[in-house]
Every structure is written in structure tokens, then in C-alpha cells.
Amino acid sequence: MTETTSKILVIKLGALGDFIQAAGPFAAIRRHHSDAEITLLTAPAFSDFAQASPWFDNIEIDTRPGALQIGKWLDLRGWLRSNNFSRVYDLQTSDRSGFYYKLFWPGSKPDWSGIAPGCSHPHTNQKRDLMHTVERQQEQLSMAGIAGVEAGNFSWIDTDISRFGLHERFALFIPGGAAHRPAKRWPIRHYQDIAHHLAGLGIQPALLGGREEASLLEDIAVADPLCKSLAGKTTIHELFALAQKAEVAIGNDTGPMHAASASGCKTIVLYSAESDPALCAQRGPDVTILREGDLSDIATDRVIELLTPEMKQNQT
Questions:
Q1: What per-residue confidence (pLDDT) applies to 307?
Q2: All structural domains of the chain with their residue ranges
């Protein structure tokens, strides 16, 4: 039975992969509270994407006050209390978002789904941190009375990618990731080899990443004149739209790979010992995870073996 509640708050701050994997819960909350006004508290990077989605009525940016920014904390507290939310779904479940529950003191607190001590609908599984993000959030919502959380559906995204001037057949390369975790990046030479291989099949390598990764993408692009770097040029909407039309997406364990996998694109994700796919692996209908303790131990041929048959079948 659908529950009608006047005002609902959902908290999801990031990062990109986590935000994308919360799409199923977002949709389930929207369906369960079909007549409610639902507000998302999130980070600036996700505001436009969330606003265009079918899940929320309002988007509020979390200013993330620092410990000594008393004025900003008071502003956040005032906003939370004045909105009279009847229920809050804390899908971030971090120390920060859990602290927001305390900001309602000394007044009455809304129903709260999360891990904040004393909340009305706690996720009580003590092994929650050993669960994959998707199953963990499904269980959290189940304990709050929302069952049947499905995989995220992004079919509502219909974005024109013609401005990128890509060839009809192209593949996505996502070779970046957190700069402070270089062990999560497959060596450049391997991406160069794959780019050269695909270009030889008439498939254009399109290289994706942030502006700060422009030099990395350019180093890979020298592998073949057909390569094209889109460093810093894509929105979240465009990540999905590109993946929907790409022949394959190849990349490290980083946020944009979650967009590729969730879009339905054939996706190959490369993992090292730095992250555990059991907890955070990309999900989708055609996802292959390759993992070695050291990423350099994943040979180029292993990736080529995964993509060559399909690529050759589609070769014109």
C-alpha cells in the first residue's frame, strides 16, 4: 500500500558512483510516497541531474559547514526544522549526515531511516558495512517499510551528444580516478594498446575524465589519430547518453563507470586490491569485473579477449 506523507527529505551527498547506485532507492521512495513533496539534500555536482530526474520535487544544496562555521550550522538547523519534514531517508549514512539528526534537538524529530543513534527506523544490521551498496540500501529501506527496491532506471535520460562530433561507432575509455590513489589506475600503455586495437576496427576511442585528467587523456590519445579526448566536457546526463550509444566502456573503478554500467552499455571495469568489488562493484546488464592485486598484472589481451568477438561481429 502506498503511504501518503506530506514532506519527505532524502539525504544523498555523493560520490558519483554512490549517487548513481542510489537511483533504485530514489525511485522506490518516490513510488512509496507518491503524493508527498520530496526534497533531496545533496552536493552541488548532482543538483542539475537530480532536478531533471523524476524522483524529486525540490533540490537543496548541502553547504557542508565546517566545525567552526557556527552561522552555517545554525542556517542548516533552521532549514531542517522549519520544513517540518515528517520523514527523512538518510541514504548517505555518514557521520556527517547522522549528525544532522541531532540538529532537530530540542524539538520533535521526524521519522528517520538511517544509522543515527535513537532514530525511529534504524538500519540495525551490524554487518551493513560488509554489504554491497545496492543490497545495503535495499535492506535499509526494507526496515523502513519500503520493499521491492529495483535497479536504477535511467531511461528518462534523452540527451543530444552530437556536439562531441564522434564517429557512429565509438568506445568509451575512463582511465582516471582519484589522483591520490594511483594504484586504482590501469597503466597508460595498456589503454594505448586497447585504443590502437579498437581504432584498427574502425571504432573511435572517446576518452572521458575531468579537466584535471586532461593530460592523462592526451597521453592515451597519442596512440591513434582516431582517439578523441572529452576531458572536462561532459555532464552526468551526457555520460549516460554517451554510454547508451557506445559499443563498450572500459575503465578503472571510478564514478563515471557506474554511469556506463547502469546505462546498459557493455562495461569492463578494472580493479586492484585498492577497492573491493564485493562492496562497490558497478551493476548493470553487461558488466565484467577484472581484478588483480596490482593493476599492471591485468594484461591487455585479457581485455581484448572480452571485446573482440562482439566488435568484429559489428564491424562494417
A1: 84
A2: 7-143, 162-313
For residue range 45-67, list pLDDT tens digits in order. 999 999 999 999 999 999 999 99
In angstroms, the Cα distances linking 148 to 120, 138, 140, 145 are: 21, 8, 12, 10
Per-residue pLDDT band for 179 (boundaries 50, 70, 90) equals confident
CATH number for the segment(s) 7-143: 3.40.50.2000
Q: What whole-number distance in Å separates Cα of residue 240 and Cα of residue 242?
A: 5
Superfamily of domain 162-313: Glycogen Phosphorylase B; (3.40.50.2000)
pTM for the whole thing?
0.93
